[in-house]
Amino acid sequence: MDSPLLNSDVQDFIANSLQANFPKIALMKNPFPEVKWNDILNQIASKNKAKEKLPTWFAHKYILYPSKISIEQTSSEITAKYKASLINGVTLIDLTGGFGVDDFYFAQKFNKVVHCEINEELSKIVRHNYQILEQRNIECYHGDSLEILKTLNQHWSWIYIDPSRRSDVKGKVFMLKDCLPNVPNLLETYFGFSDNILVKTAPILDITAGLSELKSVKTIHIIALDNEVKELLWEIEKDYSGPITLNAVAIAKDTTEVFSVIYGESEVKANYSLPKKYLYEPNAAMMKTGAFEAIGVHYNLEKLHQHSHLYTSDIEIDFPGRKFEIKAMHPFEKTEIKKHLEGKKMNVTIRNFPISVEEIRKKWKIKEGGNDYCFFTTNLNNEKIILLCEKI
């Protein structure tokens, strides 16, 4: 790619500016008049964003970056690696290529990957970066992905789609029909080119709403990184009509924990109990499944209340979420709060409780942080209680 940003002196300047004060650099006089100053500043800001999220890209000189927002929106390498572990085959076409992180990892599992991107400049950047990264089995096409799909006219092992929400759609309700491409409308067309489709959506998409729009869904992966749900992955198989598996995937620095459940298993009922010695809070991915009864059954734990989504046991178990030892339990009464909580420093969590954390902190002057954990919740007798805990 022919870009003045690839000048070695410019690249050295970008690399040497990463640790500097960005606002101060922005006020400098441009030392490279032949290059737009805003373009250089964008490279500095975007490369800084990539340091933790995209270490492979960050480590290479002469990598070009799109806008900082594009870097924020792209998959991290950690989630891209997990995606690539789910599927394999001979060929894959990505209809919404973006910055190409997912395709880089898909290329480790497929003989050939095609990256489609409607933004011409971004397509050129991605093609250039693949050359720098020496990833040679990815072909980049610029243009409308549906037209590219029809022009190439071949059967693919997998189609991958990461639809983006249209900017003209207002409101909080997130539906796939409001995204580009419109996957629900185009699903039959896509099945003409592949029997297997993997769709990535934002975590805000409600699972029940997604299933109302899509058919032939086989598995849904809820991907959480450091206990924050980052994306949903929908495995769709042509003509599939069996049970749908929900995989809650919790990825941390050195571990990946997966909790699996069949969607809509209504016959599963958890046992309920007053708080015992240990308290368990499911991770974010498990919470997104909505399978709160199944969690209790699977781990042989008892729930505190139908809507509290906290679990308890007398014996400590391994659990994919936060785990605590209950040190004390108090009724939600003013005298108890004044005696045990007021003015102290502790981490406050509410579950199925009518008052917000902010209100609780403000009313009783509870400072944030420390090693003590306090849960305001409701027990099976519909009593408001306070659990003072120590994290395990």
From TrEMBL:
InterPro entries noted in UniProt: PG_1098_Fer, SAM-dependent_MTases_sf, Thump-like
Q: What SUPFAM superfamilies does the entry give?
A: S-adenosyl-L-methionine-dependent methyltransferases (SSF53335)
Segment forming the signal sequence = none
Classify the source by domain of life. Answer: Bacteria
Q: In what residue span(s) does the THUMP-like domain sit? A: 321-391
**CDD domains linked:** AdoMet_MTases
Q: Where is the PG-1098 ferredoxin-like domain?
A: 278-320
Name the record gives this protein: THUMP-like domain-containing protein
Q: Which organism is it from?
A: Flavobacterium saliperosum S13
